[in-house]
Specification:
This protein is of the alpha+beta class and 357 residues long. The protein has helices at residues 41-49, 52-57, 69-77, 83-94, 119-132, 141-146, 159-164, 234-240, 245-259, 268-271, 305-324, 344-352, and strands at 4-16, 28-31, 34-39, 64-66, 115-117, 180-182, 185-187, 194-200, 215-233, 279-285, 329-335.
């Protein structure tokens, strides 16, 4: 069985703004002395988790990141007991996942932080709430934690928690180290972010009243070939899934397929950036993982930046193999610019087979 699966993608985005900063402009990074457009790791992981591929292939085995577990528990209890006790139980059980907001807060059943909750943990939370209905006197939060109630689980079947990890500040023993690392996606080429000046017309306003627009705004955008890199620690993925190798294999297959289609949705209605990678390299092996972004430290220029980006990536991989005595990993390529190429299904199966049945 291989220790690591690595996935390298090159995807050409049209003029777009898939991931915005706090000012609404495209996120950027300066690399090689020039500005590149950037998509954050967090945004990519969100796109993967909510992708059709993940939702279909891993249905029922995905977690929920939420502050609203207490609200869900209250909805489960409200027709079974009086309102005050239902709220007290909801706050008590949700408090196992994080600090509850103050009683006078507008959302007094919610946790202050987002908690990544697995399906099994959510079911166990509901079951504990039902059990507490039978209590004449509710335990304190500390007393409940000392009872070792089976709500927080050290191993569960939530694939996205196993892949991307979680942190529970209130219960650090139940933190999960991520088995999948996703790098920030950076363009291989220099990008000058431009501004789109746009107007919105008031359809019911006559020219006699005012010939001007009803709204005037600006939106930043840019275009380029993004390098997207992901690394899977196979042993950690299996361990996070309590040794369930068939589920780990499904997870690896779903990850490759999702990376081929999932994109952050920022300003998608304005720019329709429905894109797919033109090049995907999947590697598996036991050698040290290598992010190949240094192939683009010098920005790619010219009229065919995709082909030149593919060439630079493959050359950088060959250079590492030559110098360090590789190749230390087997690879399979999808390349829409080549006459012969593996299919996406073949790449997904190649990744899946890194994990023995």
């Amino acid at each position: 069985m291989d220790r690591f699966i690595q996935i390298h993608c090159l995807t050409h985005y049209p003029p777009s703004n898939p991931n915005r900063d706090d000012l609404g402009r495209p996120k950027t990074a300066v690399v090689g002395g020039v500005q590149r457009q950037r998509i954050s790791s967090q945004s990519l992981k969100r796109a993967l988790r909510t992708s059709e591929e993940f939702q279909t292939a891993l249905a029922g085995q995905l977690g929920e990141r939420t502050q609203r577990l207490g609200d869900a528990i209250y909805d489960h209890l409200k027709n079974k007991i009086d309102e005050d006790k239902a709220k007290n139980i909801s706050r008590l059980v949700a408090g196992l996942f994080g600090k509850i907001k103050g009683e006078k807060d507008k959302a007094p059943l919610q946790t202050e932080q987002l908690a990544f909750v697995s399906p099994d943990e959510k079911s166990a939370a509901f079951a504990l709430a039902d059990e507490l209905l039978k209590s004449e006197k509710l335990p304190t939060e500390d007393e409940l934690k000392k009872q070792n109630v089976p709500v927080l689980l050290t191993a569960d079947g939530a694939v996205d928690i196993a892949m991307f990890g979680r942190m529970l500040a209130a219960s650090p023993a139940f933190n999960r180290e991520a088995a999948v690392q996703i790098a920030h996606a950076i363009t291989t080429n220099k990008v000058d972010v431009e501004d789109d000046y746009y107007t919105a017309v008031d359809d019911l306003k006559s020219d006699a009243t005012d010939a001007g627009a009803g709204f005037v705004g600006e939106a930043g955008y840019g275009s380029g070939v993004y390098y997207i890199y992901a690394c899977v620690n196979v042993d950690l993925l299996i361990g996070n899934l309590a040794g369930d190798k068939p589920l780990a294999r499904r997870a690896a297959k779903a990850l490759v397929k999702a990376l081929s289609s999932a994109t952050p949705s920022g300003k998608v209605n304005s720019f329709a950036h429905h894109v797919r990678p033109e090049f995907i390299l999947v590697e598996r092996g036991n050698g040290q993982p290598v992010n190949l972004f240094s192939a683009f430290a010098k920005p790619i220029k010219g009229s065919n930046i995709m082909v030149d980006s593919i060439t630079a990536l493959k050359q950088k991989r060959a250079d590492f193999s030559r110098v360090y005595g590789g190749p230390e990993s087997a690879g399979k390529e999808l390349n829409v610019t080549a006459d012969t190429s593996a299919t996406l299904d073949e790449l997904a199966l190649f990744a899946m087979d890194a994990i023995e049945e």
